[in-house]
Amino acid sequence: MSSRTLPLLFINLGGEMLYILDQRLRAQNIPADKAKKVSTIVGWIEDDRRRVMNDIITTMFNKKFLEELFKPQELYSKKALRTVFDRLAHASIMRLNQASMDKLYDLMTMAFKYQVLLCPRPKDILLVSFNHMDAIKDFVKDTPSILSQVDETYQQLIEIYTPMCSGEFQLIRQTLLIFFQDMHIRVSIFLKDKVQNSNGRFALPISGPVPHGTHVPGLIRMFSCTGEEVNRLQFTNGGNYTAATREGSFEIFGDRVTKLGTNMYSVSRPVETHMSGTSKNSAQHTKVNAAPNPLAKEELNLLAKLMGRLDVQKPGNTDSGFRVNLFATDEEEEEALISRPDELSYGVINIQATKDQQANAELVRIMGEFTVSGDQSPSASSKGDDLLAMMDGL
Q: Could you tell me the pTM of the whole model?
């Protein structure tokens, strides 16, 4: 496992989340009672959309949070990472119910999983990250204070990741694929484009440009002990490959060449997620090995510390918030909420924690025998539910 994977996973999933929310906020209809309060409906939509995007990006690129995030460490468990994005998605006046949040997270994870699978070289994962960062910068281009936060993160990415060798990026890629390996959520965009099968697994192409720095397969060259070429053999490569394109730029400004990581929602079309038949009960939310994880306590302590540093602004007047629905209709959202897996449902408890140390102590107390392995131990389901509820209240 690579100890440098977490920042890339967070930034790329965060970028996909912003793409989806931006598309839904643009398409969201305003209730009639709210429409009467404003003189220009279009202006109200745009102002609210910008406010939501700015609030989320500000929280996402919080300096103290990123300082902890960029420290070498193992990946969070799936449930812990989902908690971070639950908190992040509600860092503004926008509200999502649990069914819409589930759908949002499914879209985020499957999009980035597909991008990782399609990267010609492991190092191209960094170009995918830069595409997400470029788009995030565009979202806040009119807000200099937030733009400077994003630029600082850009510099950190360049300083930490560009000197890495191919082997280190291969380890990052393998760590990401291990994280995504049990997620097989069907997405309509991928199904329509025939890049995803009905069971939720991706169909990878056997055509297109080969990775930068490599040759089109089909030729075997044999050399003598003196380094002189003595023979050539041709073979059928089984695909329709072309020569490599130029390498993308790893600078803060430049042409990334690859389109992976750009906004696929810029063209208006509905995006639906469907649990495949084989994975409906277990795929994304599979309960993995119940063996204790010795890093569980450290992971939970760090997560509590990070969550305590996410300064989420709670609106004083609940009427000022508005709900975003990621489904086509409210009826579909309600149906998805009813069919939501039991392991994702948890009650809410309120714990007052004014300092990071108090939060850590309370986490350890509640944790007890709770261990993290993959998502969580099946025998610790209720304790895990309390833990997540407490994180939401920090």
A: 0.71
**Owner of token pair 């540093």:** 309
Q: What CA–CA distances, in Å, run from 75 to 122, 261, 351? A: 18, 21, 26
Q: Do residues 351 and 362 touch, judged by C-beta distance below 8 A?
A: yes
Cα-Cα end-to-end distance for the chain:
30
Separation CA 209–CA 198 (nearest Å): 27
> What's the average model confidence in pLDDT over 49-76?
92
Q: What is the pLDDT of residue 330?
A: 62
- Residue 202 per-residue DSSP state: B
Give the residues across from 221 on adjacent strands.
Answer: 232
Distance from CA of residue 384 to its chain's centroid?
A: 22
State residue 326 phi and psi, 5-degree precision: -85, 0
- Residue 24 in tokens: 């839904």
Residue 330 is which amino acid? D
- Round to whole Å and give the CA distance between 199 and 347: 32
301-325 b/e (C-beta count within 10 Å ≥ 16 → b): bbbbbbbbbbeeeeeeeeeeebebb
List pLDDT tens digits, range 283-336: 344 333 444 454 555 555 555 555 555 544 444 444 455 566 666 666 666 666
User: Nearest CA to 25 among 54, 5, 1, 3?
Assistant: 54
In whole angstroms, give the CA distance from residue 393 to residue 58. 20
Give the pLDDT of residue 81: 92
Q: State how far Cα 151 lies from the chain centre.
A: 20
Across residues 272-286, what is the average pLDDT? 45
Cα 385 from Cα 392, distance rounded (Å): 11
State the Cα angle at 299 between 294 and 301, rounded to 5°. Answer: 115
Residue given tokens 């897996």 in the structure block: 341
